[in-house]
Amino acid sequence: MKNDTIFSPEQSSTSSSGTSLCANSAVLQDSTKLTLFSAVWQLLLTYWSTSSEPQWLENFIIIANMFALEMTELTISQLPTNINCKTAQGIITSMNSSYGLLKPTIQKAIYQYLLDYHTKSNLTCDTSDDLQLFITTYFGAFSTLISPKDLVSLIPSDQLSTKLTSLKPEDMIIYLQPDTNMNSTVWSIMLSHYTNISKLGQVMDLLNIKTEDITVTVFKTVWPTFVSKSGFLNDYEMDKWFNVRFNNTIKLITLEQLNINEVITANCLFYQNLVKTLSIHYEDYSGNTRQDIYNVFKNYLQTHPQPKCYTDYSWIVENLQVYITFCSADDLRSFSSNETLLHHRSNEVLHHAHMNGQVFLFVGILHSG
């Protein structure tokens, strides 16, 4: 019985596209079509165990082309689950053209069948390392039903970074945006595993965040990736991250996010942009937070080689800006052991110090010894 078929060889060979069969089925009365569909569907279910998988798929395609609108949630639930990738692709290809005509409940049932299959198979059918290509191939028109939560559940946890980072920014946005009321945890998972800093920046530019919860989540999630990948950014991109992408959220910064090795060991481009940005937002922080910020700056400037991020005589002012008011004489000496450097152009440094209320500090330092 391996070569048995529901339809005659002539039907299979001439009607695989479903064109003539659809034309014939169109003239049938609804009750007749339902009766006929019920009969051939039962045969199809029986043929799963008696025919080869390719032959079963051929029969399914014919039935799908003739009776897609007669399918119910029950019939979809009866589809075999131990299929191979070619069969999975054949099923979705045969249903694609009918997607817009199907009832939402049937669309959802077919989508759920596909989601369950690919989730349980651990994305075995995805052999290209291109998640969007896989989704297009194996979900087709039904991919519009993929929610952020479903996308995360579809991908094995140890493959999240590889799979999600393969998405183009515009595709990532599509999967993030549908449910603006979703649990912020899903956003956190998706963004934390989207680790290409250039692509992540484009996603940040396109995000349309509507809730405070998501706003906080995005900043907390994206900040560590930004810091760890900041060494790959040029002047323009660094400025854009600090002054555009984080412009409304940098006020949320905490000591926990700043006092990390990636910040203390960052390059000068990152550090000086950080100082500039946190100085601009100085009024947004409490007294305790300002002290915490200064302490991080102090830790950075105390690392070697010293003097850190030296440019010219005003290097200490550049590297602390308004947070210079927290700097003690001992702190300043810890930033450099070069007495000549500390005395160099003392009038200009005194001017900056005076503007920040620290004239006595610098007079003591610059004229000591």
Characterize this entry briefly.
The protein is an all-alpha fold. The chain has 24 helices and no strands. Among the domains are: 88 residues; 116 residues.
Q: How would you describe the overall organization of this protein?
A:
With 369 residues, the chain is an all-alpha fold. Among the domains are: 88 residues; 116 residues. 63% of the residues lie in helices and 0% in strands. Helix 4 runs parallel beside helix 6. It starts with 8 loop residues before the first helix and ends with a helix.
Question: Which key terms come to mind for this protein?
Answer:
24 helices, mainly alpha, 369 residues
Number of helices: 24
Ends distance: 103 Å
Helix percentage range: 55-70%
Structural shape: elongated
Number of strands: 0
The description of the largest β-sheet is: none
Beta-strand percent range: under 5%
Look at the structure and give the mean pLDDT.
85
- Low-pLDDT runs of 5+ residues are 9-23, 345-349, 357-369
Radius of gyration: 32 Å
N-to-C SSE string, H for helix and E for strand: HHHHHHHHHHHHHHHHHHHHHHHH
The assigned structural class equals mainly alpha
Task: Please describe the topology of this protein.
Elements: H1 9-14, H2 19-26, H3 30-50, H4 53-67, H5 73-77, H6 85-96, H7 104-120, H8 131-139, H9 148-154, H10 160-165, H11 169-176, H12 184-192, H13 197-206, H14 212-229, H15 235-245, H16 255-258, H17 261-264, H18 268-280, H19 287-301, H20 315-320, H21 329-335, H22 339-343, H23 346-355, H24 359-366
Helix pairs in contact: 2-4, 3-4, 4-6, 11-13, 12-14, 15-18, 23-24
